[in-house]
Amino acid sequence: MFCKLAVRNVTRSLRDYAVYFLTLTFGVCIFYIFNSLESQWCMKMLAQSAHYIVDSILIFMDVFSVFVSVVLACLILYANTFLMKRRKRELAIYFLLGLPTGRVSLLLVLETLLIGLLALGVGILLGILLSHVLGLLTMAMFAAYPAGASFGLILSVKAMGKTVLYFGVIFLVVMLFTGVSISRARLIDLIQGGRKNEEMRERPLWQSVLTFLLGVVLLLIAYAMLLLRGFLSIDPLFFLMLALGTAGTLLFFRSLSGFLLRLVKSRKSLYYRGLNMFVLRQFNSRIHTTYVSMTVICLLLLLAIGVTACCVGLNNTIDTMTNASAPYDLTIQNYSGDVQPTDIPALLAENGFDPQKELRDSYFCALYYNDPDLSVPGQGSSDTMVALSDYNALMALQGREGLTEEALPQLRTETLVTGFSGMGAYLVVDDATAATLSVRRQIFVGNYAGDAQTTEAVLTAASESPGFYNTGSYLIATKLQIYMENMGTKILVLFMGLYLGLVFLVTAAAVLALQQLSQAADNQPRYAVLSRLGVSEGMRNQALFTQVFLSFFLPLALAVVHSIVGMTAANAVIAVVGRVDSTQSSLVTASFILVIYGAYFLATYLGSRAMLRGNS
């Protein structure tokens, strides 16, 4: 009987459970996606050459998952509290009919369990689908991948079990909280739960205008400090900048309680059009007490937009870093070249890696110890020298121009990039001078003739031959290794950014939706009065839509302005290696906002409309 009643209550109260169900579903979906990363193709590929990066990513995801589960638990408890407030009259009726407290608690526990199981199933299914999308996104970040790589749907049993475990604990906490709330509830409080009115105090116009101007000034000061100082200087001024930005946002929303109403009232044609007067009065009365929460929601949206946009937009930056730090496919340095010189190409050929076959071009040369007498004051100095002909040959393999003999007296110190531990300032000298110097180390560079992964497999086998490293102290670095190192960093930033960004977005949207639904419940008598006065249902729906739209998109609009300034500052910080891809990051961020924020907006509007129609 109780199971049937629980099912009936859930299906009958779908409008009340819509936001609660959305929050649970998005939470389960996000949790599953980022805990199934171990099964992603990109992680398996990274593990082949940089397993320690994969381990770091998974450790970070585990830590973030604990943080996210706490945030989602608080959010779900908040949503559950809203549902309890909405159903006070219903619960009072159960008590009046003589139903014991334990039975009422059991009924609510069954309803919570039913919603939880449904959200868990839908969330995991949605997570499986979206994890495939995330896999395609990360695949697009790789310049190359195995020809036989599989990109089908990923079903991670481990992630599924972890998701069920974490959310099972959350549901148990919610059920316990529900049971305690019911056991402490008093019948008189349940009956009169909806009779508390809010006192509305209209602020003087001068006070609202002054508050608005002060908020704008504080925001402009914070913007200027951010653009001039950037993100990197963490000092008292940095925290002052954050405080000014937060205070400016708070004052901006606080001023709306009088400023917006007075501004529209000055335009009579707009103020008296349709139900604008009613909408603005309602909005004005609510923002008077919700400006703090709107500030928090705006800042959460800023974090969601900023973190998501930056982590997605770093794509080109990481690629630029890879190309800058790895100009050759292969770099081998013999650091014992001064005491144990080796013919590196011959050594490779002896152990199964034929440079003539595996490389389309290569070069082998020596680097020399510095002669202090050759350092030119004002032109810099280095502890390593390179012959002019060798330098020009190395530049030619990079597709860059070298130096001429005539340029040496004016330009002596050059940056030579050769791979891991091979980037630095080298003093370029003419060949005759280099012949008089002592060898410091040897370097062999080359570019692959065929597939990089196949060639590196042959190289790995050669370098692991017995006695290979007995001939010298070698450091072998390849472009693919450096690429994987940078890709690991890139994926770590992407995954953590998306994880946090989506959680912030869901949190902001859910809190805002629950507030609006609560306000809609309080506004039922007012809309009933409009109906009795002859206002058509279409006009009432339009008024409701405007109210919900203002509440959702005013914080979003200011958050977008904040994020534009933040993105500009972020671009200035990373300008030395590239730029944030604003087009790609904007499209991805806009997609998340459209799907998640839009879904909450639509669910809120439809739920509020159903409430105001009086359908219980």
TrEMBL record:
Cellular component per GO, a single term: plasma membrane
GO biological process, one term: transmembrane transport
Membrane topology: Multi-pass membrane protein
Leader sequence segment: none
Keyword list, A-Z: Cell membrane, Membrane, Transmembrane, Transmembrane helix, Transport
Subcellular location: Cell membrane
UniProt similarity note: Belongs to the ABC-4 integral membrane protein family.
Main localisation: membrane
Sequence ranges assigned to domain ABC3 transporter permease C-terminal in this UniProt record: 63-186
Protein name: ABC transporter permease
Organism: Candidatus Intestinimonas merdavium
Listed transmembrane segments: 17-37, 57-79, 117-144, 164-183, 204-226, 238-264, 291-315, 491-514, 548-574, 586-606
